Amino acid sequence: MPAPHSRATVLVYGAGGALGRSVVNAFYQAKWHRIIAVDFNDRVPGATDTIKLDLGMNMEECHSRIVKEAGLLGGQPLDSLVCVSGGFAMGGANDDAIFESVKAMYSSSVYPSFISAKLAGDFLKQNGLLLLPGAACVERPTPWGLAYGSAKAAVHHLIGSLASDATLRAKVGTLVVGIAPVTLDTPGNREAMPNEDWSAWTSCDELAERIVAWSEGTVTADNGAIYKLITKGGETDYVIM
Amino acid sequence: MPAPHSRATVLVYGAGGALGRSVVNAFYQAKWHRIIAVDFNDRVPGATDTIKLDLGMNMEECHSRIVKEAGLLGGQPLDSLVCVSGGFAMGGANDDAIFESVKAMYSSSVYPSFISAKLAGDFLKQNGLLLLPGAACVERPTPWGLAYGSAKAAVHHLIGSLASDATLRAKVGTLVVGIAPVTLDTPGNREAMPNEDWSAWTSCDELAERIVAWSEGTVTADNGAIYKLITKGGETDYVIM
């Protein structure tokens, strides 16, 4: 008998980014039947379905397109919903781009998290997994990135709240977890920080494998936990914040 | 010699709400020279200037109108900037109005806080006060109000970050504080909760007097502190969260 939620349907929100592509690939390698990729891309390698969002769509429009194009109404429910959408911006109280940064950070992290929460409330199976994109920096004030830090703090609070949300708790065994990277090892980050110690950065492929393991239940996750990713010498510890 | 920042210029963002009106009135009673009220109202009693925002304006537009109509560029700097803008919404993961709530909560609490942060960065005096609108419920998960809780968590993180923001720290003696009410004693709350113990609610007028005292430096506030308002039998304690 197969595990209750292995190798079925996953939706990956933010599938076009470096981590998103690793996540899609890891579910592909794990032979999940249906891998629904959501992003601004035309096609994500390994996905069975790609849902392309347009820049400038609001939350309702993104949500409606996903529900429609994924055939969620009356279709197969989701076994796993992995939101790894995100962005990054610096800037303090006198930054002239502060409002642009707020809009970008909320659009890339907070709104996709709420859309994922609603999709999970309506379409996630019993014993399913909802994963949202946090950040380790939220442990401390982030004067260097007011918009980024506050958006990630909003996501962290959302994770804790969803872990005890009545709708999600009614789906027995369902878990809501967050990931809180320090730095992900992506081409963009290598380009931006060429002189840093990359061995202290977290591999997207390894993290993606962990996300599949949490989804399949082969590695235990705690409901409401936000996992800080502490990487040293290429090895990553998952420490609950 | 007058205290360094008494009886000069204050900007009250969200001046048209129950707390905002109390705050404007308290500064009026304290004989501050200039009281700039910002809200969707035509006129707030006691204010020397009222800046009316339009619903649907984005952050940049709100900010520009305030800077222009208050004559901040090249004009007198602000001694105190009090943002008490806010809203309230219930709703969990399967709430059909969740996206509307997210938009409403971020528009009413988060965006005004960022606009206030930018105004403070550019126009707040040395030894000034910036106050932002938090909420006591953020201490715990808020599954009953996902949008409300996450928006207030974002504001709390912003307060902590602004307290160590380089621009604001360069203004010697300047304080960034938050207020975290449990329940404010407003007509709206009395109407919504007629059977609650109103003596456990915080008086807007008393809180407004405390905000004037913090602004004038006659009562000490701690930089970065978020003050939880614990009211019992009509008496309010200000407890740092």
UniProtKB/TrEMBL annotation, chains A, B:
Keywords: NADP, Oxidoreductase, Tetrahydrobiopterin biosynthesis. Belongs to the short-chain dehydrogenases/reductases (SDR) family. This is Dihydropteridine reductase. InterPro entries: NAD(P)-bd_dom_sf, Sc_DH/Rdtase_CS, SDR_fam. Homodimer. GO terms for molecular function: 6,7-dihydropteridine reductase activity; NADH binding; NADPH binding. It is an enzyme of class 1 (oxidoreductase). It comes from Perkinsus marinus (strain ATCC 50983 / TXsc). SUPFAM superfamilies: NAD(P)-binding Rossmann-fold domains (SSF51735). GO terms for biological process: L-phenylalanine catabolic process; tetrahydrobiopterin biosynthetic process. Its EC number is 1.5.1.34. Signal peptide: none annotated. One of its GO terms (cellular component) is cytoplasm. Gene3D superfamilies: NAD(P)-binding Rossmann-like Domain (3.40.50.720).
